[in-house]
Amino acid sequence: MASREIVHMCPLSHVLEPKGNKKQYTCDGCREQGYGPRYRCEPCDYDLHKSCMVTSGSTSHPFYKNDMFVFFERLPRDLGRRRCDACAQQICGFAYHCDKGWDLHPSCLNLKPKLYDKGIEFQLQKKMKSKCIRCNEKTLRRSVSGVRGWSYESKCKKYHFHVYCAMSVLDQEATGDLEEGDYTPSTS
Predict the structure, then answer these.
(1) What is the DSSP string of 172-185?
(2) Alpha helices in the chain (DSSP H)
(3) pLDDT over threshold 80, residue 21
(4) Which residue, of 34, 57, 80, 114, has the fewest CB within 10 Å?
(5) Which residue in 122, 121, 92, 91 sits closest to 104, CA to CA?
(6) Comparing C-alpha atoms, which of 155, 150, 165, 146 is closest to residue 110?
(7) 36 burial class (0-12, 13-18, 19+ CB within 10 angstroms)?
(8) Residue 143: its pLDDT value, please?
(9) Mind listing the pLDDT tens digit for each residue in 28-75?
């Protein structure tokens, strides 16, 4: 259940316009990389992911059914440096936090429960059950403090992606930067 919606603007309170070009950018809300569609203020050179443009004051996630996540533009300093429990990357801007210690980027909170790539259905999982077919590791190299991140697992349970690696592959596909061999699951 979500509470009030918060629609963000640039620092000078200009209305952000939707842009659909396939360019890489850094979201000025969560400070994470983005590719393709976004909201932008040209005069201020300010960009937001769709999930950072409109946020909820508080919300929940199916993986944490009994926990309420509160939105912060910047996490309180007394929490220290935090990592997103979905992608295992450091939180440097917009984030959701619950009192049990879980933290999520807005885009990670809104991950699709299913992805389809190359005819394969992938389902979002709370844990990584096997090595990632993108980085060939079970635990992300940059992961610290026991934050392992979520994963996408193929319906046949043969292929696994860290959320971080899946986002990277899909972003590269969206921009045409994915080279042959970067991700090629065998469908046999």
Answers:
(1) HHHHT-PPTTSS--
(2) 50-53, 106-109, 163-175
(3) no
(4) 80
(5) 91
(6) 150
(7) middle
(8) 60
(9) 999 998 888 899 999 999 999 999 999 999 999 999 989 999 999 998
Say which residue, 176 or 6, is predicted with more confidence. 6
| pTM for the whole structure | 0.83
Q: What are the E-state strand segments in the chain?
A: 5-7, 17-19, 24-26, 33-35, 38-41, 46-48, 54-56, 58-61, 64-72, 95-97, 103-104, 114-117, 120-125, 151-154, 160-162
Are 125 and 148 within 8 A, CB to CB?
no
Mean pLDDT for 116-132 is 89
Total residue length of the chain? 188
CA–centroid distance for 25 within its chain? 14
Question: Is 84:30 a contact under the CB 8 Å cutoff?
Answer: no
